[in-house]
Amino acid sequence: MPKLPHLSGAEVQRGLERLGFTKVRQSGSHVVMKREAKGCVVPMHKEVNVGTLAGILRQAEVTPEEFLAALQG
């Protein structure tokens, strides 16, 4: 598994949107994103902890490789 970078909440959201996720709603500083039946909650903080990012990807059923490729392209 590749090492996950330190990203902001906006960068995580942008990467998930490139993978087909859409913003469903926002409650305070947390954005709920969905793709078909899979969803995840992204905290819109200046920096998302690496462990939190791993949990978001697990919740969204996205591999770290897929996510990093979406960030690059």
How would you characterize the overall build of this protein?
The structure is a single chain. This protein is α+β, with helices and mostly antiparallel strands and 73 residues long. The chain is 41% helix and 25% strand. The chain has three helices and three strands; from the N terminus they run H-E-E-E-H-H. A three-stranded antiparallel sheet has the order 1-2-3. Strand 2 (30-35) and strand 3 (38-43) form a beta hairpin. Helix 1 (9-18) crosses helix 3 (64-72). The radius of gyration is 11 Å and the shape is globular. The model has no long low-confidence stretch (mean pLDDT 93).
Comma- or semicolon-separated keywords:
single chain; 73 residues; alpha+beta; 3-stranded antiparallel sheet
Can you give me a brief rundown of this structure?
The chain is α+β, with helices and mostly antiparallel strands. The protein is built from 3 helices and 3 strands.
Q: What global shape is seen?
A: globular
User: What's the main sheet like?
Assistant: 3 strands, antiparallel
H-E string: HEEEHH
In oligomeric terms, what are we looking at?
Answer: single chain
Give the helix/strand class.
alpha+beta
**N-C termini distance:** 19 Å
Summed up, the helix count is 3
Strand order of the largest sheet: 1-2-3
In terms of topology, how is this protein built?
Layout: H1 9-18, E1 22-27, E2 30-35, E3 38-43, H2 50-60, H3 64-72
Antiparallel strand pairs: 1-2, 2-3
